[in-house]
Specification:
Elements lengths: L10 H12 L2 H13 L3 H13 L3 H13 L7 H12 L4 H11 L10 H11 L3 H12 L4 H16 L3 H13 L7 H13 L38 E5 L2 E5 L5 H12 L3 E2 L2 E2 L6 E2 L7 E4 L7 H13 L11 E5 L5 E4 L5 H6 L7 E8 L5 E2 L2 E3 L4 E3 L6 E5 L13 E3 L2 E3 L2 E9 L7
Antiparallel strand pairs: 1-2, 2-13, 3-6, 4-5, 6-7, 7-16, 8-14, 9-13, 9-16, 10-15, 11-12, 11-14
């Protein structure tokens, strides 16, 4: 049976449909985009696919994105890659950017040097998400040239309307990171961000991470494979197996996670032990944000890859990244991260249980907010850019009751935290 579009009662949509009927591919793509805005995803996908098959590069990218995320059709990452590669052959840098994003997972595409080539092409074309990803990448390095590049790329992305880049730029201008201090420019940017509803980012003293000199790229070189470097662990306990990681994330990476998470915060929930469904309780009084794959950009994916590899695991084993904010008095009372049978059955049981947790502190907490492990007698104080990692299962894969832990109440200031739960087997499709 052929697809039959509905009869329109929306005059604007009716006009777009009429234009598409008598016009070219661009008119059909405009109609498809309007349908997406109205939630008519299946019809939009059919229009994008038809235009993609006719060779429209923009439609090929949109068709690929809908296939990647399962919007208006079943998710099909390999088919998405096919469309993106066709668009890339037409010199579509947005297609190349999404291919780089997918390749970070090293499943549907190999994680190879083409990632860097594609990011560089996006930077040269002035594609804001590529500029932001490259800026955060250069911001991890010590060289003055790379630090200046970070600022320049954030400025360019901000000028092109990237609000997250503008938020990352503000503390650099104010503090003179990668540039001379520019208090007047910083104040002007602060006012514009405030008018746009962007909250100021909390202070972060996270240092630029120490990198093995053998793996430091030449200044100005895009080399996102640095996310694969595994920093040293400092073991703190054996049951649960628990370690600390110094200087995992840079200040820019911490700010990136806070800025992206702040837009999505909601009351934190816990999983009901009987139904496996989330519910708000007094056990957990923070706010959090979960990054659905459609919300992930290349910069966020690269940071998540770095966190997963620091936990000695691959990104495809990770659930969605969670960013949390604890205000004064808020806490997460003693709990365990492994899933009970009802919760596991409700969320991709083929991936197995949560074998490991890694939490990264994102800001400087004035007082309180430590992570406590009662069975081990260990308390970890929050330090921006540093992480705590622990196993939820024992060596035989059984839940380890000693993994009980708590986020102690924040006494002064606020605490921002990023958490990645890693499953025993593959959880993500790419």
């Amino acid at each position: 049976m052929s697809f039959q579009p509905p009869v329109d009662v929306d005059p604007e949509l009716a006009a777009l449909r009429a234009a598409a009927a008598r016009g070219g591919l661009d008119d059909r793509v405009r109609l498809a985009l309007a349908l997406v805005q109205r939630g008519a995803m299946e019809e939009a996908f059919e229009l994008h696919r038809a235009a993609a098959e006719a060779g429209h590069g923009g439609a090929q990218v949109e068709c690929a994105r809908m296939l990647l995320y399962g919007i208006g059709t079943d998710a099909a990452p390999h088919a998405a890659v096919d469309w993106l590669e066709r668009a890339e052959r037409q010199r579509n840098v947005v297609a190349g950017y999404f291919l780089a994003l997918i390749a970070l997972g090293s499943t549907v595409l190999p994680r190879d040097g083409r990632i860097n080539q594609r990011v560089l092409a996006g930077v040269q074309a002035g594609f804001p998400p590529a500029l932001r990803a490259a800026a955060v990448h250069f911001g991890r390095r010590d060289s003055a040239q790379d630090q200046a590049l970070c600022v320049q790329m954030l400025q360019r992305a901000a000028q092109l309307g990237d609000g997250i880049a503008a938020q990352l730029l503000l503390p650099r201008l104010a503090r003179g990171e990668g540039c001379a201090p520019q208090p007047a420019a910083a104040e002007d940017l602060r006012r514009r961000l405030e008018a746009a509803g962007a909250l100021p980012l909390p202070a972060s003293s996270a240092r630029r991470p120490t990198t093995d000199p053998r793996h430091i790229p030449a200044p100005g070189m895009v080399a996102l494979e640095d996310a694969l470097q595994t920093p040293p662990l400092v073991e703190r306990a054996s049951s649960p197996r628990m370690s600390e990681i110094e200087g995992l994330l840079s200040a820019d990476e911490c700010r990136l996670l806070i800025a992206c998470g702040a837009q999505l915060l909601r009351r934190s929930q816990t999983l009901d032990p009987e139904t496996g469904q989330p519910a708000a309780t007094q056990v957990r009084t923070s706010q959090d944000a979960s990054f659905d794959p459609i919300l992930e950009d290349l910069a966020l994916r690269a940071v998540q890859l770095r966190i997963a590899r620091a936990a000695r695991m691959e990104l495809v084993h990770a659930e969605q990244l969670i960013v949390l904010r604890y205000a004064p008095g808020e806490e997460y009372r003693p709990h365990r991260d492994y899933l009970n049978p009802a919760s596991l059955a409700a969320d991709r049981p083929h991936a197995g249980n949560r074998t490991r947790t890694i939490c990264v502190y994102l800001n400087d907490v004035e007082a309180g907010g430590a992570t406590e492990f009662p069975a081990a007698g260990v308390r970890v104080e929050p330090r921006a850019g540093c992480a705590v990692m622990f196993d939820n299962l024992d060596a035989d894969g059984r839940p380890n009751a000693d993994s009980l832990h708590a986020g102690l109440p924040v006494e002064r200031g606020e605490k921002w935290l990023a958490t990645l739960w890693l499953r025993e087997r593959r959880y993500r499709s790419y």
